[in-house]
Write a structure and sequence with these properties.
heterodimer, A: mainly alpha, MetI-like fold, B: mainly alpha
Amino acid sequence: MEKIKKFFKYDNVGLLFALPAFLYMLVFIGYPIISNLILSVQDVTVRNLAKGDKNFVGLGNYMTLFQDGVFRTTITNTLKFTVFSLVFQFIIGFALAVFFNKNFSFAKPVRGLLMIPWMIPMTVTALIFKFMFSTDVGIFNYILRSIGMITENVEWLTNTNTAMWCVIFANVWIGIPFNTILLSTGLTTIPQDLYEGAAIDGANGIQRFFKITLPLLRPTIESVLVLGFIYTFKCYDLIYVMTSGGPVNSTHLLSTYSYKLSFEMFNYSMGSAAANVLLVILLLVGMLYLKITMKGEEE
Amino acid sequence: MGEEKKLNRKKNVLFCVISVIVLCIMLFPLFWILVTSLKTEQEIFQIPPTLYPHVLNLKSYAAQVETGDFNMFRAFGNSFIISVGAMLIAVVLAVPASYAIARYRFVGRKAMLLGFLVTQMLPVSVLLTPMFIMFKGMNVYNTWGSPILADATLGIPFSVLILKNYFASIPKELEEAAYIDGCGRLRAFMKVLVPVAKPGVIVCAIFSFLYSWGDLAYGMTFILDQQKRPITAGIFNFMGQYGTTWSYLTAFAIVTIIPVALIFIFMQKYIIAGMTSGAVKG
């Protein structure tokens, strides 16, 4: 008893405050991760989910997955979705951040209003863009037809060539506010006199951007891109509601495909294995994020 | 801190105009579904499309209550209960934990912090099946309990990471003064520190609520009973069953956005504070 008291006397009293949250996460996140790993090396389908006879199949599920053409397509899809989403939302977000960093009367209130798309539930965003991209009533088809860019309605979401670009478009709409606000915050930390000094030395706007803004903003840019990668790579609801992975798997991502394997085909073990592949990629990129964040912790 | 110098008058007006145009383009999708939800199904299909409803049609909002295929107001209520439940769990657990991480160098502190950071990266698909099996075993499957328990895991790590910065910025002297006045650690924490960190606590509450409000995967997977499903799952279900009746669907969308809009209008500064913290989900 005395020993326990002594243990909690100084800094370790913090454990008592932190433990409830930690245990909660251990039960509802830690345990599922382990059990997902176990599930992925067994053969569990809807037939033996409740029963005890779960066969150990080793890496069999992973082997099957990598021979599955659809699974390989989902990996390329996920990469394409992530890279193009990131590129567009970052460029547009950056441009808006620089613009709204100028000191004009509407800057703060309008930038605030621009955050709204980020707050909208993904299901609703998906519904909105499904409506706007729809073939007959879609506003995009109407606009493109009236300016003469197309002569016939395009089947945006049911064509394997265009569906991916539609979900990327919707995802960029969500991602722009996130990029704008983080990059704006980063920009305000750059001292103004640096720019003034450079202007006196005769540097033009482009030079100032590449020689001052970009290098000083690097930590912010790094974390925006890494965080953006993580959240885009595991994106699920948007795709599931907009296209459910179709047409012909052309928009299936690792996340939606693993959901399909588990909860539509009831092959829980295959779904788990697919989810684990997703997890491993996320963790590899996540290391970068941890490195950036924990570096700040050291101080 | 770099505050750019004031622009001259002409430029100021020009920039204001550009910013409003950008805003109109970015928010057009929301305007468009609001307008659509007030049109009749016929007018929605009209070419050229009308910019505002020529015949005001409020039926889309009432129809589901009358016929009862999908009562969006009940679904709204379900979502509300689930989100508030998850928010309460997240705040109650995260506040003390973030205080501990900010103030004490206890055994395993680093590992815990790392754990919270990693959970923010987890894809929902890794957790769904094991949670599904676990909730069946706990007898909370097909009740509000399961999405509440699952949604809280979204709010906790975010809240811990945000709040630890708030607690770290409170001067130690404040706490020590409370000890001198005879407060125990728990009392000092409850009576002195939590009130000072209140803005941070509000940010956490808002984001925990929003994460749960926007959740689809948990609500859809853990609740089968239509009567108990949150509004997001209800909308998805309706799309699958009745196809694309846009007048109804856009009305559901607007109803789902209402709490988000209210939070934005009344608590904008907390939203911005939360988003700029860098711990937010993009």
